[in-house]
Specification:
The protein is of the alpha+beta class and 128 residues long. The chain has one domain: Ribosomal Protein S5, domain 2 (2-Layer Sandwich), CATH 3.30.230.10. 34% of the residues lie in helices and 23% in strands. It is built from four helices and five strands, in the order ββββααβαα. The chain has a five-stranded mixed beta sheet with strand order 1-2-5-3-4.
Length: 128
């Protein structure tokens, strides 16, 4: 059976996605999707590429996730699934690109600067 893979990144989260024909099971780090992401919104985000293409329940997905928080991880998985679908069938790319799943969102946290409490925030200035 052919296994397709895709790599998704968002903030500091990295998702390695392995997809093959199956019954629609999504496993993340050895745990079921419902056990890994408690929020229904995050379940929706992960399944969006399948919803756009009307392919729900046709592929088993195994994901290895590393780094980041829950939102970044879910969006990294979404991108990885989209890339795996395009590897499987290049005709899916226009629909996934129109939905915004093929573009890497490069925004990440700005580093903290020395002599400041946060990245942009300054300590209160006193003239005298």
């Amino acid at each position: 059976m052919q296994v397709y893979n895709g790599l998704g990144r968002r903030k500091s989260a990295v998702a390695r996605v392995y997809m093959q024909a199956g019954k629609g099971n999504i496993t993340i780090n050895g745990r079921d999707l419902a056990n890994y992401f408690a929020s229904e919104l995050l379940h929706y985000v992960v399944k969006q590429p399948f919803m756009v293409l009307n392919l729900e329940g046709q592929y088993d997905v195994k994901v290895t996730l590393d780094g980041g928080g829950l939102t970044g991880q879910s969006q990294a998985v979404r991108m990885g699934i989209a890339r795996a679908l395009v590897e499987m069938n290049p005709e899916y790319k226009p629909a996934l690109r129109a939905a915004g799943f093929m573009t890497r969102d490069s925004r990440s946290v700005e580093r903290k600067k020395p002599g400041q409490p946060k990245a942009r925030k300054r300590f209160q200035f006193s003239k005298r």
